[in-house]
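User: I've been trying to design a sequence by hand for this structure and keep getting stuck. Would you show me what you'd pick, starting by listing the structure so we're on the same page?

Assistant: Good idea, let's start from the same input. This is the structure you sent:
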């Protein structure tokens, strides 16, 4: 399997997994903490979390299909960077927990840069 396909599958899987399981199937306690830190009521926090889950699933599917589109990959990098800064600002203690956004987001950003570089290289070889 090529590095492009590995990056594609891993990034899309991550968006889908993080949208489906800790937000749509079962709202994880940390998701509640993150949205509650914005000052939302319990009902609004629940709605925001579920909406974020739907958005992540949609983006994961879009990414899976359009992974060669530079704008989509750059949007992925921007979103992951923004989410990391969001957590750093509103829940900084999460950055030192096990399986934290630092390791997850930085790995996905690295895969995104690999995808950008490999896609550009393949286009130049044609």
């Amino acid at each position: 399997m090529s590095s492009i396909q590995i990056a594609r599958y891993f990034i899309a899987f991550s968006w889908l997994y993080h949208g489906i399981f800790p937000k749509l199937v079962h709202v994880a306690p940390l998701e509640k903490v993150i949205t509650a830190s914005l000052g939302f009521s319990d009902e609004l926090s629940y709605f925001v979390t579920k909406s974020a889950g739907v958005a992540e699933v949609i983006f994961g599917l879009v990414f899976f299909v359009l992974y060669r589109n530079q704008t989509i990959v750059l949007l992925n990098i921007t979103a992951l960077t923004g989410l990391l800064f969001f957590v750093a600002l509103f829940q900084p203690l999460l950055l030192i927990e096990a399986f934290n956004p630092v390791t997850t987001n930085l790995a996905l950003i690295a895969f995104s840069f690999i995808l950008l570089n490999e896609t550009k290289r393949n286009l130049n070889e044609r």
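That's my pick for every position. To get oriented when you compare it with your attempt: The two ends are 20 Å apart (CA to CA). Residues 6 and 122 are 15 Å apart (CA to CA).
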